[in-house]
Amino acid sequence: MRSLAAGAQRPCAPSSRLPAPRAPRRACAAFASASASSSAATGGVPDAKVVVIGGTGRVGSATASALLQQFPNLEVTLASRSDASYAAAVARRPNLRKAAFKAVDITDAASVKVGRGEEGR
Segment Disordered: which positions (predicted)? Predict the structure, then answer.
């Protein structure tokens, strides 16, 4: 094995200059860009339906709440396993009363189809 001269850099030494991390992609990028337009302020997503799987949890309820605030005419359904979690989500975020609730178990394909409104398909 060769030795390196004093002060010489190893050819494969890890660099202290790591690339900057990328900004995370946002799940609601389309909605975020639409909120800048004037139509978004008046609920610019007509007749749209959104099912938020896990919609009664912290992240899901925050997402559903933000969607309802930005787009008042959006039809939002919160999908979760229990009615109790829906009641807790509404207690945390009262505007979720506008959202429908469907009991859905994501480990059961038939349950997910019912939650998405695909009962007979």
Answer: 1-22
